[in-house]
Design goal:
- By secondary structure, this protein is mainly alpha-helical.
- It has a domain of about 80 residues.
- Helices cover about 75% and strands about 5% of the residues.
- The chain contains five helices and two strands.
- The protein has a two-stranded antiparallel sheet.
- Helix 2 packs antiparallel against helix 3 and helix 4 runs antiparallel to helix 5.
- The chain is rod-shaped, with a radius of gyration of 25 Å.
- The chain starts with a helix and ends in a 5-residue tail after the last helix.
Length: about 120
């Protein structure tokens, strides 16, 4: 350990200044990237949540879901796709069309359950 302290005393203060400056720049850049990703994620999630909250019978925009992929971890994205598939399957199984062409949803509690599961996977950051 004494050899390291002797080395530190011989290093020029200008070198320390440059090193700490570079570390500060790298850390600041990293923080700014994460802030931008969080902002983009929240914009997309807000649109998707609004779409789900206005009507539980809507399907989510495939474009917005695809935009979320690079902003989410692999596991979260996989969970989201499973929940979307479950929601679509529930909607398709519960829809019935009468003679006039009007759509009726038969299993409202199940549709609400899958909608809430989707909303839990889309929190704001």
């Amino acid at each position: 350990m004494p050899a390291f302290t002797e080395y530190l005393s011989t290093v020029n203060p200008a070198v320390w200044s440059v090193l700490t400056f570079l570390l500060g720049v790298l850390f600041g850049h990293w923080v700014a990237l994460h802030r931008d990703k969080r902002k983009e994620y929240n914009e997309i999630v807000d649109r998707l949540r609004k779409q789900m909250l206005t009507s539980t019978h809507n399907s989510l925009s495939a474009l917005d879901v695809d935009r979320l992929k690079p902003l989410m971890s692999f596991w979260k994205h996989r969970q989201l796709h499973r929940a979307i598939d479950s929601h679509h399957a529930t909607l398709n199984a519960a829809v019935e069309q009468d003679r006039t062409g009007e759509l009726h949803y038969l299993n409202e509690p199940e549709i609400e359950r899958t909608s809430k599961a989707l909303l839990r996977l889309l929190p704001r950051r």
